[in-house]
Amino acid sequence: MAWQRDVAKLHAIFGGKNPHPHFVVGGAPNPIDLESDSAINSKRLSQVQDIIVRMREFVDEVYVPDTLAIAGFYKDWATQGEGLGNFLCYGDFPAKSIFETAGFLVPRGVILNRDLSHIEEVDLHDPAQIEEFVNHAYYDYDSGKDRGLHPFVGETTLNYTGPTPPYSQLDVARGYSWMKSPRWRGKAMEVGPLARMLMLVASGHDQAKELVEQTLTTLQLPLAGLYSTLGRTAARTLETRIFVDAMQGWYDRLVANIKAGDTQTFDDRYWDPATWPAQARGAGFMEAPRGALGHWIVIQDGRIDNYQAVVPSTWNAGPRDATGQPGAYEAALAGHVLHDPDQPLEILRTIHSFDPCIACAVHVLDPDGGDALSVRVT
User: Fold this and answer.
1) CA-wise closest residue to 187 among 77, 322, 374, 294
2) Any idea what DSSP says for residue 120?
3) Cα–Cα distance, 193 to 203 (Å, whole number)
4) Which three-class secondary structure string do you get for 14-35?
5) Are 170 and 149 in contact (CB under 8 A)?
């Protein structure tokens, strides 16, 4: 916990707060000013370098070896817990400039049916690609439950159809979740560390391939062992090794840019609303720790007309869709044999491998159907 606390200082140094950076509206980072006591200065940059060194030591000397040592006692979990076999990444960690959308360390794309020889392209603006369904969720669409909606035209209309509490069983033939069901071209996807590691391997990332080969060799497992509860847990460790190694290079580039006089921290070309067209829309995306995170916004006459977020746990934990296709959680649980149904540790083990955060995936509404918050813009 002490180590985790120290590492979290990186968020505060660059973002002003942890865990939700909010230095200014929009989440822009702290400014860079080596002469200021309230900005990113030489002292704080020195702290960052120290944290990076200690992070790499911990990952190399504790995290990776401990994961491999413990995994050796649970190799039977390399044969269960996969589920979908479809994996989605939005792409993250730009290899060139923060203002470019190409050249990511983790590429954007989709892997279908475990096929690492081909990466499908992902377009977050294409209405035929990203859609959310509500067939088994406690929401309605004006156009009907059987139709999927792209987030640009997404709706969040509460319609609870579940049983009256207390109850012992949900009716999965009807609505049974407070989450929608995101789909890529109609297919359910898994997002998160395993998806990222597979995308790195599929794109030919040398370190990723080497780490995967070393892990499988150490544990005496075939490649198929990655597609499992154990593989998902191991992927979280392996990607950490890749990212922590990359951090030193990112830090060195940051310092070099500052020395060259480049202290820009955000793109201010569209900061003034007066520069916006009558209607504007855009998508913001990243690879959060749990996977692909996307926000979609539509602005009409300078005001927000629609705003939808699809978070990683929505992708993984969402319910079945119109065709009965389950989400990643449900699919990963298929075939599990419970040693003791009263203590279903097997279910917990697989769900925990996704690092669930359900609170992030549901929508907040007033229980009486009223407005939870009203903001007046003058």
Assistant:
1) 322
2) B
3) 15
4) HHCCCCCCCCCCCCCCCCECCC
5) no
How is residue 347 written in tokens?
């279910």
- Are the C-beta atoms of residues 245 and 369 closer than 8 Å to each other? no
The pLDDT tens digits of the residues spanning 51-102 come to 999 999 999 999 999 999 999 999 999 999 999 999 999 999 987 654 455 5
What's the pTM value of the predicted model, to 2 decimals?
A: 0.91
Question: What's the residue count for the chain?
Answer: 378
Per-residue pLDDT band for 365 (boundaries 50, 70, 90) equals low
Q: Rounded to 5 degrees, what angle do the CA atoms 311, 314, 320 make?
A: 155
Q: How far is CA 134 from CA 44, 144, 191, 308, 326, in A?
A: 47, 9, 20, 14, 13
User: What is the C-alpha separation between 127 and 109, in angstroms, rounded?
Assistant: 16
Beta bridge partners of 88: 110
Q: Residue holding tokens 């470019």?
A: 100
Any residues with CB less than 8 A from the CB of 24 and at least 6 apart, and which?
Answer: none
Tokens (6 digits) for 93: 């960690």
The reported pLDDT for the residue numbered 368 is 65
If one counts every other C-beta atom within 10 angstroms of the C-beta of residue 54, the result is 13
Q: What amino acid is encoded at 77 in this protein?
A: W
The token pair that represents 70 in the structure block: 């413990």
pLDDT at residue 99, as a whole number: 47
Enumerate domains of the chain plus CATH numbers: 79-233+272-378 (1.10.645.10)
Q: In the numeric block, which tokens belong to residue 358?
A: 């359900």
For residues 68 and 219, give the distance between their C-alpha atoms in angstroms, rounded to a whole number.
7
Residue 148 one-letter amino acid: G
What are 202-224's pLDDT values in tens digits? 999 999 999 999 999 999 999 99
What is the Cα–Cα distance from 183 to 150, expressed in whole angstroms?
10
